[in-house]
Structure formats: structure tokens, C-alpha cells
Amino acid sequence: QVQLVESGGGLVQAGGSLRLSCVASGRTSRNYAMGWFRQAPGKEREFVASISKSGGSTYYATSAKGRFTISRDNAKNTVYLQMNNLKPEDTAVYYCAAPRSSIVVITTTQGVDYWGQGTQVTVSS
After folding, report:
1. Which end of the chain has a smaller Cβ tally under 10 Å, C or N?
2. 71 class by beta-carbon count within 10 Å (0-12 exposed, 13-18 middle, 19+ buried)
3. Residues 67, 121: contact at Cβ < 8 Å?
4. What 3 state SS string does 58-105 have?
């Protein structure tokens, strides 16, 4: 069974930075794309960023471009989301996500088969 465990969330002031981590277990993560989504109170879960198996291709939501960077360390089965210049509207629970298929690159919730438990990010103004 695939398990995804996030860490790194917290409270930060606007303009600050956080780095989220997601450790995958239960399969060889380097064979699969990975992604990050977020869900704010009262809103639907939305795509933030994703990365291909090799890490050679990355995809970002418009809101994340230029401020967030997704990366991965396949030797550690870990995916990261570096978030800079955080804004209050970035406040949400952030979820690590993975597909069941090795050929899927996730950019919507429909492509996700596995979710982490989420980590809270709160940005104060």
C-alpha cells in the first residue's frame, strides 16, 4: 500500500518561506510522477505543482509560478515544495499526491489515486 507523509507546514508571516516534504513508501517512487495540491476552508482542493518521474519536467498552477518550486530526491523517495514570498491567500492544507499509473502526470485531482494526510500552512498578514 502506498503511503505519503507530509511535513514542514506551519505559521509564517506574509513574505516568508516554507519547505514542505513528502516521503513516499510502499513502492519505488522514482517510477511515478508526484504532485502537491491544497485546500482552503470552504474551497475545493486545487492543483499547486507536479513533477515527472525523473524530475525533468515540472508543472505549476498560475498562482504558484515564480514563487513555488517543486523538486524530488528519488534516492530518498521524497518530494519537496519550496514556497517563497508566501501570501495570506496561500493559507490552506497542503496535500502530497501520487497516481497509480506510472504514465500519468497529475495536474488535476482526477489523476490522483493516493493522498497524504495533509499539512497546514497558515500565512499571516
Report:
1. N
2. middle
3. no
4. EEECCCCCCCEEEEEEHHHCEEEEEECCCCHHHCEEEEEEECCCCCCC
* Assigned C-alpha cell, 20: 514542505
pLDDT higher than threshold 80 for residue 39: yes
Among residues 111, 118, 93, 116, the alpha carbon closest in space to that of 33 is found at 111
Query: Do residues 52 and 107 lie in contact, with contact meaning Cβ atoms separated by under 8 Å?
Result: no
- In one-letter notation, the amino acid at residue 48 is V
Q: Of the candidates 7, 6, 9, which has an alpha carbon nearest to the alpha carbon of residue 90?
A: 9
Instruction: Express each pLDDT in 89-119 by its tens digit.
Output: 999 999 999 999 888 889 999 989 999 999 9
* Closest C-alpha among 124, 123, 34, 15 to residue 76: 34
Distance of CA 32 to the CA centre of its chain: 14
